[in-house]
Amino acid sequence: MNTAADITSWLPVALSDGLPDGGVMRVQTAGHDLALWRAHDHSVHCVDNRCPHRGMRLSFGFVRGNRLNCIYHGWQYGETGACAYIPAHPELTPPESLCVPTLPCVDHGGRVWITLDPDATALPAMPAHPGLRSVAVNVSQDRIQAALGSGALPSTTHPQRGCSARVLDTSAFDCRIALDVATGDTATLVVSIQSVSAERSQLHTQLTAAASVELKVAASRWLDALRDHLEATA
Amino acid sequence: MTSPDIAQDDWYPVAIAAMLTAGAEQRVTLMSHTLRVTRDAAGKATVTDDHGTARPVCEAHGHVWSSIGTPPHPIFSLPEGVQDGRRLVDCGPVRVKASPLRVVENFLDIAHFPFVHTDILGAEPHTVVAPYDVEIRDTVDEVWATKVSFYQPQAAKSASDGIVTEYEYRVPAPCATILYKTCPPRPAEMDVIALFVRPLNEELCDAYAWMALFDDDTALEDLIQFQQTIFLQDRSILENQVPRKLPLDPRMESPTRADKTSIAYRRWLKRRGYHYGAETRGV
C-alpha cells in the first residue's frame, strides 16, 4: 500500500514532450544537480550532473544511441550509469567502479519523474496529456501550493486571449485548473510543481485536450500572469 | 579561503607589456589585492599595492609581472621568446570563472580536442591519445610532457590540411604553461604558445595567451581570432567543471592514461604545497 511519503517522493522534473529522444537537460532540486537525458530507445534517465573524470557537467553532454556522452572528452555512460567507452583509449574496458550515480527516473503521465527515495513505490496510473510548457517561478513549492489552494487566481484581459481561472481539484501530483477564455472556449490545465530550491520552483503544465494554437497562446499568457502573481505575492 | 601560502611568492602577469604605454596606469586584481601598474616616461614599469607600497616587478615574455609576496627566484626563462624570426603575438586576456589551476590543466590536455575544438584541433574518429612521456624535472622544478602527438584537422592558422601534430608541454610555474608544437611552415622549428594566468581569486582568473610563431603571412587579427576561438571553447568547459577548484585528492576524479600530464601537474602542486585554487579536502 502506498503511504503519503511514498506518493510524494516522486518529483516531476520535465514534460515528456520537453525531452525528445537524444535530449539532455539540467535538473536542480533540493541541492541536487542532475542531468536528465533520453536515449534513442525512448527511455529516460537521470544521473548526477558531474562526469567523474574531470568534473564536467554532464548536462552539457550529448546522446548517441543509448549512451550519454560527456562534452569534455566524450566519455560514454550507458543506461546503468557505468562508463562504457573512453575515446582516448578505445581498447580499454573501463573498470566497473567508473560510473556516474543514477536516480530512478520514469516517463509517466506526460511527465518525467525522478525520486531520491530508492524504495519509492510505482506511481499510480495517470493520463498522459500533451505538454504546454514548463515555467520557472522564483517562489517556493509550499507557497505555490498554498496560493493555488487559496483559489485566488489571476485573470488576463484580452479580447480573444483573456482567461479567467478556477481550481478544479488538486492531488498529490498535480492541480487541475479550468480556464474560461474570452472567445467562449474552455481548457483544463494540469499543473505539476517541482521544487528547485527553497526559493525556486518549476511548473510543468499540460492541457487535457488537443488545443488550437490560439488556445495554447491564451493558456500560456495566463501562465505568465500566474507566475507574476505568485512572485508578486510571495 | 585557503591562505595564499607559497602561491603569493610567485610571479603573475599584471599587464600586456605593449599595452602599458608611458604615463599609462592600469588597476588589476591579483589574489584579492588591488594593484596599480604604471610606466614612467623612461619606460620603467612600477607596481604598487593599495597601501601605496611598491611590489616586485619585472618584464618578460611580453608581459609585466608582479607579486603580492616576495618571489625567491627571477621569473622563468623562455629563450624562444627572443629567438630571431619569431613573431610575438599578444592574444589575451580572457576572464574565466574557474580556478587558475583548472585553466592550466585544461591547456595541458589533448584528449578533449575532438569534442571541444571539433574540426579545428581534433575530430572523431581520431580520438586516440598515444602514449607519451611525462616527467617532473627536479633540476628546474618544472613539469614536462614530451613525445605528445595528435591528429589535427587544422592545427594552426597556417595549416590547411589535417596533420599529426607533435607537442611538448612545459609547466614552469603553477599558473604558467607553454606549449611547443609542430610549425607547419618551418618543420625544423616548434611554434610556441604560452598561457599566463593571473588569479583574481581562487575561482576567478584572467588568462593571457601569448605566441611566438614562425608565421609572417597570416594577418594578426586572424592569428588572434584563431586563439580566441579555441580559448572561448575551452572557457565553456572551464566554467562548468565541478568543483571550481582543482581537486588534489586523486580519489576525487578519475584520470586515465591520457591524463598523465595532469596527474603529474597535480602531484607537483601537492608536493610544492601550492594550494591556491586547489580543492585540498581529502589531501
Write the layout of secondary structure elements.
The complex is a heterodimer of chains A (234) and B (283).
Chain A: H1 4-8, E1 10-15, E2 24-29, E3 32-38, E4 44-48, E5 62-64, E6 67-69, E7 76-77, E8 83-85, E9 102-103, E10 105-108, E11 111-115, E12 131-137, H2 141-150, E13 163-170, E14 175-181, E15 186-195, E16 201-207, H3 213-233
Chain B: E1 12-16, E2 25-30, E3 33-39, E4 45-48, E5 54-55, E6 57-60, E7 63-66, E8 87-90, E9 94-96, H1 100-107, H2 113-116, E10 133-137, E11 142-152, E12 163-173, E13 176-182, E14 190-201, E15 204-213, H3 220-238, E16 246-247, H4 260-272, E17 278-279
Parallel strand pairs in B: 16-17
Antiparallel strand pairs in B: 1-7, 2-3, 3-4, 4-5, 6-7, 8-15, 9-15, 10-11, 11-12, 12-13, 13-14, 14-15
Structural description of this entry:
The complex is a heterodimer of chains A (234) and B (283). Helices cover 15% and strands 36% of the residues of chain A. Chain A starts with a helix and ends with a helix. Chain A has helices at 4-8, 141-150, 213-233, and strands at residues 10-15, 24-29, 32-38, 44-48, 62-64, 67-69, 76-77, 83-85, 102-103, 105-108, 111-115, 131-137, 163-170, 175-181, 186-195, 201-207. In chain A, a hairpin with a 4-residue loop joins strand 14 and strand 15 (186-195). Chain A is of the alpha+beta class and 234 residues long. The model of chain A is unreliable at 1-7 (pLDDT under 50). Chain B has 283 residues and is an alpha+beta fold. In chain B, the strands form 4 sheets. In chain B, strands 8, 9, 10, 11, 12, 13, 14 and 15 form an 8-stranded antiparallel β-sheet that branches. A 4-stranded antiparallel β-sheet of chain B has the order 2-3-4-5, with no helix packed on it. In chain B, strands 1-7-6 form a 3-stranded antiparallel β-sheet, with no helix packed on it. Chain B is globular, with a radius of gyration of 18 Å. Chains A and B meet through loops of A and helix 2 of B.
